[in-house]
Amino acid sequence: MSSGIVVDRVSIRYPDTSGQEVVALENVSLDIPTGEFVVLVGRSGCGKTSLLNAIDGLVSISSGEIRIGGRSTAEASHDRAMVFQSPRLLPWRRVIDNVAFGLEARVGKKAARERAAELLALVGLSGFERHWPHQLSGGMQQRVNLARALVVDPKVLLLDEPFSALDAFTREQMQDELLRVWRKQNEEQALTMIFVTHDIGEALYLADRVVVMSPRPGRVKEIIPVDLPRPREAAVRDTEEFQELAHRMRTLLEGDH
């Protein structure tokens, strides 16, 4: 089944603590082809995470519909996985068992651990299978978090600011690692990525397209194609094309004051 995503006129409303209605998203539509890397950018409170959670089926939508491969995301499915900002690793399970956890009930512990070992190798953590989470750096914990999401072989990977807590050097390393993993996974089966960030440079470095969202209620303000060559290397950030795209995005976001 295709992993193409259709967000069709989606709105999300909910009551705040005083009972007043909050409109998080209003009439948002997106068409994301299979295997594309899309990044959502916008000011805090613009509904980026709400949209990500709705695609994952974690929050209810008030109107409209979201479909993956023609099937509504209201239906439970293993075709999508989420990577959160915090790794949220289970401290009482070793690295390999953290990664295997989501697969054990489906295939058994032995097969799940074998697949977990393959994913740990993919994210560059061979040799750390028996470590405890507290023995890993922040960047290594996020690699485990990524492997844990990939272990269920999702067709759609949703990432909610996964590198925001990392130092600048580690963050750029993880961006390269994510692109490498995405490229490798796409050799075997198409993997669609939707990534949330506040960082303009990160968005442009990763994305095929950047979706710039307006302040609440969140709407699609503009979609910017990023026609930079792949595979990407750090030097692309210094190119005139990259800087022009960054200026365009910054102007759009500054217009939201």
Which key terms come to mind for this protein?
four-stranded antiparallel beta sheet, single chain, Rossmann fold, 257 residues, alpha/beta
Q: What is the total tally of β strands? A: 10
Low-confidence parts lasting 5 or more residues at pLDDT below 50? Answer: none
**Distance from first to last alpha carbon:** 42 Å
Radius of gyration: 18 Å
- Oligomer state of the chains in this structure: single chain
Give a description of the structure.
- There is one protein chain.
- The protein is of the alpha/beta class.
- The chain has a domain of about 140 residues: 3-Layer(aba) Sandwich (Rossmann fold).
- Helices cover about 35% and strands about 25% of the residues.
- The strands form 2 sheets. A 6-stranded mixed beta sheet has the order 6-7-8-3-9-10, sandwiched between helices.
- Helix 5 links the parallel strand 7 and strand 8.
- It is globular.
Topology summary:
Blueprint: E1 5-15, E2 21-32, E3 37-41, H1 48-56, E4 63-68, E5 71-72, E6 80-83, H2 95-107, H3 109-122, H4 138-150, E7 156-160, H5 168-188, E8 192-197, H6 200-206, E9 209-213, E10 220-225, H7 240-254
Parallel strand pairs: 3-8, 3-9, 6-7, 7-8
Antiparallel strand pairs: 1-2, 1-4, 4-5, 9-10
Helix pairs in contact: 2-3, 2-4, 3-4, 4-5, 6-7
